[in-house]
């Protein structure tokens, strides 16, 4: 991987960082690159409450806040910013104001690389709205001042419309950190972790490939 000066990750929910980028971030941090993670919400509307349930609708926001902090620690992120937006309402924020806020964070962090969701290809409305705001904020910058923009995409039409990923990072060396990051979001991932462990124990090639490789599309203005 190319060494970066500073990375800014912008996602709407706790655990968005865990599945597709935690290994990449861990490798960058090992390489001496500082990472800032701006998480818009606390995922307080998450459908899972643990298995068996250990959270309630009232306690879930605080639980997910702690899980997010633990996940960031698993990766090695020291600059975690919780922005205070409400879960499942990011799509209803004023697009210009949301882009303004993203622009303020970008100006403050001054990253060489931003990682976010690819708008239109990330399934959840909050994902798409967040990615669109980041794209808008970066697009306002002069071309020579824009950081690189690497996007996560996983909708069914991704490969047909965007083509193969521009970047595939082998994160095998930090797969334990990636799994620990996923485990940190216990309220949402307990069943998934059990299934993952069984498939990894059985040497399931698809699960091994999913854990050990992280894919990104470069956003082209």
UniProtKB/TrEMBL annotation:
- Domain of life, source organism: Bacteria
Protein's recorded name: Bacillithiol biosynthesis deacetylase BshB2
For this protein, the record's InterPro entries field holds: BshB2 (IPR023841), GlcNAc_PI_deacetylase-related (IPR003737), LmbE-like_dom_sf (IPR024078)
Q: Which cofactor does it need?
A: Zn(2+)
Gene name per UniProt? bshB2
An example of a Pfam family matching this protein is PIG-L
């Amino acid at each position: 991987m190319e060494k970066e000066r500073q990375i800014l990750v912008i996602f709407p929910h706790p655990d968005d960082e865990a599945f597709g980028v935690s290994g990449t971030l861990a490798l960058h941090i090992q390489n001496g690159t500082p990472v800032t993670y701006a998480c818009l919400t606390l995922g307080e509307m998450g459908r899972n409450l643990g298995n068996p349930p250990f959270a309630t609708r009232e306690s879930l926001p605080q639980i997910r806040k702690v899980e997010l902090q633990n996940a960031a620690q698993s990766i090695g992120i020291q600059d975690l910013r919780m922005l205070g937006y409400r879960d499942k309402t990011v799509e209803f924020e004023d697009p210009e104001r949301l882009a303004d806020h993203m622009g303020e964070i970008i100006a403050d962090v001054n990253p060489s690389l931003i990682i976010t969701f690819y708008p239109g290809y990330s399934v959840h409305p909050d994902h798409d709205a967040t990615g669109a705001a980041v794209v808008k904020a970066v697009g306002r910058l002069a071309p020579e001042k824009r950081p690189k923009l690497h996007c996560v995409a996983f909708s069914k039409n991704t490969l047909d419309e965007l083509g193969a990923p521009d970047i595939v990072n082998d994160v095998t060396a930090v797969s334990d950190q990636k799994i620990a990051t996923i485990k940190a979001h216990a309220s949402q991932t307990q069943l998934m972790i059990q299934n993952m462990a069984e498939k990894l124990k059985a040497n399931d090639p698809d699960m091994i490939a999913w854990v050990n490789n992280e894919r990104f599309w470069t956003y082209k203005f």
